[in-house]
Each structure stands twice: as structure tokens, then as C-alpha cells.
Amino acid sequence: MSGELLQPAALRRRFAAMPIWQPELVAEKRFIDRAPVHAAVLVPIVMRETPSVMLTERTLHLSNHSGQIAFPGGKADHDDADATATALREAREELGLDPAYVQVLGQLPHYLTGSAFIITPVIALVEPGFTLKPNAGEVADVFEVPLEFLMNPAHHRRHVFEWAGVQREWFSMPYQDQEKQRFIWGATAGMLRNFYRLLAA
Q1: In Å, how far from its chain's centre is CA 103?
Q2: Torsion angle of C-alpha atoms 16, 19, 22, 23, degrees rounded to 10
């Protein structure tokens, strides 16, 4: 995918005039028997010279998706006006990201996780110059991955395995930065794969 298509102006145009497209992944095999819970995540694209996606590593003691790489986000509150409000609130609570630096472009289709969360991914541009104050109770680390890396299908690995008699499939996008290898997988990789499908349409 051309780097020009990943620049802020091109991303704005894509969401202003959405093409006809279909998400590749909409639901994982359920492994929790409960009523689905609505949630939203912010997909923050930082407008650096080479645009990058801000991701978090969740702390190990969390009850859901502990230790995994994720977008900032969480369950919807009754007071949230919509999914965008949920995503912006959670990004502020988890990272201290001031919404004044965030320009929301739009949303991707819902993604149902195996843990019974109906997630709305909210795509946004983030102006550099922000200061983060990660919530140590939820976030072990914050880092950025070049958008061009994540939108390159050569870096999308498909996995298939059988567990408890059920075949499961998922993507991963391992990324080596200056600190360590970041193993992006599961729902986060699935939503990024859908984002790639939208931009490639």
C-alpha cells in the first residue's frame, strides 16, 4: 500500500467518501457464555512524518486480556453518548490523552471478541505535542508502530488451531522495535486487518 494513502489527508478523504467494502473479520469463536457487552476502542494514528499507531500493553493483573497489546478502550458507560464518547473517555482515563489533540475520522464495523465484547473501533488522527500520563493500574507500556508496517499484508500472519474441539483462527502482526518484539494478535490484529481492507478497497 502506497505511503501516500496513509497520510492524514488521504485518510480524511477515505472516511469522507467511504467505498463499498466488507470487513474480513467480524466475530471470534465465543469462549465465554454471557450476554455480550458493548465497548469501544480508539485507534489513534499519530500524525508524525511517518504516521504511527499508538498501542498499549495491558498490565498482567487485569481480568480481561491481561498482558496483551491493545488499543486504548473499554466498556461503554451509561453516560457515554456513543461509541466515540466511550473511546475518547477511555483513552483519557488509560493514557491521559487530551481529546483536544484528537480528530475522529469515523468508525469500523463492530468486532465481537471471544470474550463477548462487541467492540466499535473509532479511527482518529492525533496531533503530536500531547503529553501522556498512563494509568499504571491498567497500562504497563505505551508505544507506537508505523502505520505503513501495520497496513502491509506481508506482515499479517494467519493462525489456525483447534482447542476444545473448536477450530479457531486469528491474525498476528509481530513488530520489533528498539525495546522488544511487540506481539500484536487477536482482536487488535483483527481490527487492524479490517482497517487494511477498508484502505485497500
Answers
A1: 16
A2: -40
In 3D, which of 70, 77, 75 has the Cα closest to residue 44? Answer: 70
Summarised one tens digit per residue, pLDDT across range 81-129 is 999 999 999 999 999 999 999 999 999 999 999 888 999 999 999 999 9
Cell numbers of 87, please? Answer: 473511546
Phi (first) and psi of residue 46, to 5 degrees: -80, 125
Q: Which CATH superfamily is domain 3-200 in?
A: Nucleoside Triphosphate Pyrophosphohydrolase (3.90.79.10)
197: phi then psi, degrees, rounded to nearest 5: -60, -40
Tell me which DSSP letter residue 47 carries: -
Record the cell numbers describing residue 58, joined without a space.
495491558
Q: In 3D, which of 186, 48, 68, 198 has the Cα closest to residue 123? A: 198
122 contacts 40 by C-beta, under 8 angstroms? yes
